[in-house]
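Minutes, project check-in
Item: structure for the 317-residue chain
Input as provided by the requester:
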Amino acid sequence: KKDYIFSVYSKVKETITDNILSSEDIVEIKYEEYEIRAPQFKSCYNALNSNQREFYRTIYSISEEMTEGFVKLGYNYSEADEDVNIAYKAFLYDNPEIFWMPKDYILGTAGKGEKQKLAIAFDYHKNGKDYSYTVTKKEQAEMKKKLDAVLWKIQKQTDSLHSEYEKEKYINDFLCDSVTYNEKAEFSDTAYGALINGKALCEGYSKAFMLLCNKAGIECELIVGESEGVGHMWNRVNIDKKLSYVDVTWNDRSEFKIYTYFNITESQLLSDHTLAPLFTEIKSDFKKYLFNFTKKEEPFIKKDIFLDYNVIDKKRF
């Protein structure tokens, strides 16, 4: 594998200063039931402050309805642009099953002073601006059915296994055996691309791994940083209350799979990976930087959930 393309972090094209709106241009939506609909494990959401969480909840509701036009996020303030960027990335990290959200969005304001409204749009086609969801609402419904069917099928397999480790290894092996690394394939940066099309970048592998682990009741999150000098994504898992890292992309060697990057410690990971900083450690210009949301202590891994680095499994399912 080489030339890893990391696309989650494309720069937002416009800022709030570019788009002055009237109040009639902005709709409001409710999200009272968010906590019921929330992901099983929402580590990124939990790391946010109150303003960022409010943005996250609104974005979650927008994604469900695929709302068109500008939606009110709240009232504008000096750090709002940065907080929206943080909240949106947190939302994308926590929800790998939501594959239809675009990388870019547009922010706008209406009114003046302390009550100036702040709004966001993911689908907007006016005044020379062109933003869209990655699929239509009809396409999303059909694609979601396909994804849900595959998730249910794999979950049945993991439900038959007894330990978290067995479930985790099954998911790692399934992805290595069924997904091919592909830079140009459609939806390659999504769990949908990995699980339905069988073609993915590191993002697709990592999001599919997280989604399947979460469905199996395993806490798993996305981790970003660099490897070989370019942006990269992988996972951190909690197996039997022990933290470790998994890089499924690097475990997949096309003709066979290896376990060099399966349940490794942070010290082992850092031999050829670099962790991006926490979002709280970045001072400015969040659009330009990779960042993570949680930092945990150095994991300790029991020998019975650790695989020999030199193991190569040439058996194909």
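Outcome recorded: Residues 1-14, 302-317 have pLDDT under 50 and may be disordered.
No further action items on this chain.
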